[in-house]
Amino acid sequence: MTNSTGRQRAARQSDVAALAGVSQSAVSRVISGDADSRIPEETRKRILDAIATLGYVPNPIARNLRGKRTQLLGVHTFEALFPNARESFYFQFLLGIEERAEETRHDLVLFSSTGDGGGARKIYRDETNRLTIADGSVLLGMSPDRDELARLWHEGYPFVHIGRREVLGAPFPCIIPDYRRAAAEIVRRLFDHGHRSFAFVRESIEGEPYEDRRDGYRSAVTELGIRDSSPGFLSDESGLSDAVLDGFADGSVTAAVVESERIAETLRERLTARGLSIPGDVSVAVLEDTAGAGVRWDDLRIPRKQIGRIAVDRLIEMVEDPDAPRESVLVACEVVEGETIASVRAAVRSGSAAGPDGSAR
Amino acid sequence: MTNSTGRQRAARQSDVAALAGVSQSAVSRVISGDADSRIPEETRKRILDAIATLGYVPNPIARNLRGKRTQLLGVHTFEALFPNARESFYFQFLLGIEERAEETRHDLVLFSSTGDGGGARKIYRDETNRLTIADGSVLLGMSPDRDELARLWHEGYPFVHIGRREVLGAPFPCIIPDYRRAAAEIVRRLFDHGHRSFAFVRESIEGEPYEDRRDGYRSAVTELGIRDSSPGFLSDESGLSDAVLDGFADGSVTAAVVESERIAETLRERLTARGLSIPGDVSVAVLEDTAGAGVRWDDLRIPRKQIGRIAVDRLIEMVEDPDAPRESVLVACEVVEGETIASVRAAVRSGSAAGPDGSAR
DNA sequence: CCTTGTTGCTCATACGTAGTAGCACCGCAT
DNA sequence: ATGCGGTGCTACTACGTATGAGCAACAAGG
C-alpha cells in the first residue's frame, strides 16, 4: 500500500470488480459511461465506491491499445528546441500548441529521443516510428529528409506541418505564414512611399518559405510595373554585391527588401561604410520578424502562437476524421511599421547622394 | 497501402510472421534481439525482409503494456507554460530537461490536459492520473494541493520535484536551488563591504523557496553578529514599511536584502522619492535572478537548465531502480555582481544623509 | 403455460507485444 | 535401442481495457 519498498502493482479494473462483486466488464462499462448498458444505480454506486477505496486510475495505455485515442498530440521538431539561436523561435509555436492542447484536453509529446544528442532529429530511427504513440503530430522546423515525410504520409499517420513543405506524392496539410502576401504588401507600402526602383537581397538558404517571399516580391513588382534592380536575385549568393550597393549610392535604387534581419544588419553596416543612412538614403524592409534589439525595422510579424493553435485544430480534425480533406492553411502575417521606411522625397532631401529623384533611370 | 482513403491498419508482428512463414514469437525475438533464442541467420534474414517490405514499426504502446518502459518522461507544470509573466521561467527548465532527455533517448510528455483552460492544473482529474503514461515525471511550479503530491508518492509513482516542497509522509526528492547558501553569501558580501546594519525586505508570498532565503539570511546575520533591523521580517506584510525607510534615511541601516525584483523596484522608487540613491546611500541585493532590463542588481542566478538536467537524471535513476534512495539535491546558485552594492565608506562619502558611519546606533 | 421483451449483468475476444515453457527433430554417444 | 543435449522454432499466456454477443431472471401479455 505504501511506498516503503518501491512500487507495487496499481489497481486495475479486475481488482475493482472483485471488491464490488461484479465482473470486469461491468466496471469498464461504468467507467466509460456506456449509455446503453443498463447498470442500475445501486451497482454503479458499489463500483464507484470500490474505485475510490482502491484508488483505481484507468490506464490510458491499455485504453489506447484497445483502439481508443491516447489524447496525446505529438510535437516533432527536426532540431532540438534548445540550441536554436533565437530562443523563442520554437517556443512561440509551442505556446500556441500548448494553449490549444489544454483547451481540447490533450497532452503533448515532445519527441526528443530520435536526436543524435547534437540537434538533428529523425522521424524514423532504428526502423521505429515513435510518433505512433500520439494520435497525430505537429511537425516543425527544417526537415532535411523529405523521404521521411513521404513515408509518414504514406503510412496514413495524421500530421500537419508548420511552414510550407512540398513533397511529391505526399500532399499533407501545412500551416503556412502567408509570406507571399506580406512581401507583396511590403512592396506596395514602399511603392506608396514613392519608391520605384527596388533591390531584393536574398538569403543563401533555399526552401519553400523563401520561395514564397521571393514569389510575393516578384509578382508585386511585376504587377506594379516597378523596376527591380536585383543583381543577385536569381543567383545563389547572399546578394549583397557591390553592384547593388553602387545602385544605392548613385540613387538609382531607393528601396531594399531583404529576407532576414541578419542580412539587413550587414546591409546597414555596408551602407554606413559608404556614408549612406537608413531610411534617409535607402528605405529597407525585412521579410521576417526581427528581434527588435537594435534597429526598429519595418518588417512583418509571424503569428506563431496563432499558427500553433491552428495546427492543433487541423490535426485534431484529421485524427477524428481520417477522410477529411487535407488542405493547407494560409495565415496572414501582419506588416509592421518600423523606422526604416521613408518616402522618396524625404530621402532625396536629407540624402547626401547626388542622384536624381526616385523615378529617374 | 496508400493514403488515399484514410488510415489503414498498421502492420504488426503477426503480419510479418505470416509473410515470413514463421510464428509471431519468432518475429518478436528477432526484433527485441533476444540473445539466447536460437534463430538461425537464414530465418532471421527472411523476417527482416518481411519487416522491410511491410514497413513494420513496433508499437511502443503495446510494448509498454507488456511491462516495458515507455521511454517517456512526463513534465507536469502546475500552471500552463504560457500565461506566466516571465516567459522564460518554465522554458529554461524545459531546455535542460529536453537536452538531457534527448541524450538519454527519452521523449517528453507535457501534461496539459488537466488544465481548466485558464491555468491551474491538477494531477488527478476525474479520478484519472494521466502521469502513468510516462515512466516517471518531473513536477514543476507552485502546487496548490499538497495532497495530490502525497497521493502520487503513496502510489509509488516515480517523480521528482523542481524546487523544495515538503509534504508530510511523502519524502519525494526535490531538486533545490540553494537559496540558503546564496542568501548567506550575499550577506557575507555586504559584510565584506563594511555593512553592519541590514534590513530584510520580504515578499508577501509563503513557501519553501522563501523560507530557504529567510533561513539563509537569518543564520548568516546571526553568525556574523550583524545587527538586523527588519521590522517586517516576521510579519506578513511585504515589509516596506516607513520604519524601514526611516532607517535608510537616517543612515542607521545601510544595506537591504530583498526577496524579489518587484520589491527591489518598489524600494528604489521609495528611496528616490526620499532623495536617496542606490548604491550611493543604500546597498541593495536581490535574492532572485533579475530580468536585468533596467537596473543591474546584485543578485543570484538560478541555474535552471542545469536543474532541469539533474532532475531528469535523478528521475531516470528512480525509474530504473525503484528502491534507490530518494534524496533531494541542492544546486548551487551563483551570486552575481551588479551595480547596487557599494562599500559603506563610499556610501557615506557620496551620501547626502547626515547619519553617522555604518556602525553607529 | 408459452411467448416476448426488458433488465442486469457476464463471457469471450481483440488490441500488439514479450517472455516462459516446451515440443519436435536431429546427431551423437552409450 | 536408448538416452542426451542441442537446435529451431511454436504455443500460450499476461499486460489492462472495451465491446459485441449472449444468458439468466423476471414481468407482462396472450
Automatic annotation (TrEMBL), chains A, B:
GO terms for molecular function: DNA-binding transcription factor activity; transcription cis-regulatory region binding. Pfam families: LacI (PF00356), Peripla_BP_3 (PF13377). Keywords: DNA-binding, Repressor, Transcription, Transcription regulation. The keyword Aminoacyl-tRNA synthetase does not apply. It comes from the Bacteria. InterPro entries: HTH_LacI, LacI/GalR-like_sensor, Lambda_DNA-bd_dom_sf, Peripla_BP_I. Residues 11-67 form the HTH lacI-type domain. Gene3D superfamilies: 3.40.50.2300, lambda repressor-like DNA-binding domains (1.10.260.40). PANTHER family: HTH-TYPE TRANSCRIPTIONAL REPRESSOR PURR-RELATED, LACI-RELATED TRANSCRIPTIONAL REPRESSOR. This is LacI family transcriptional regulator.
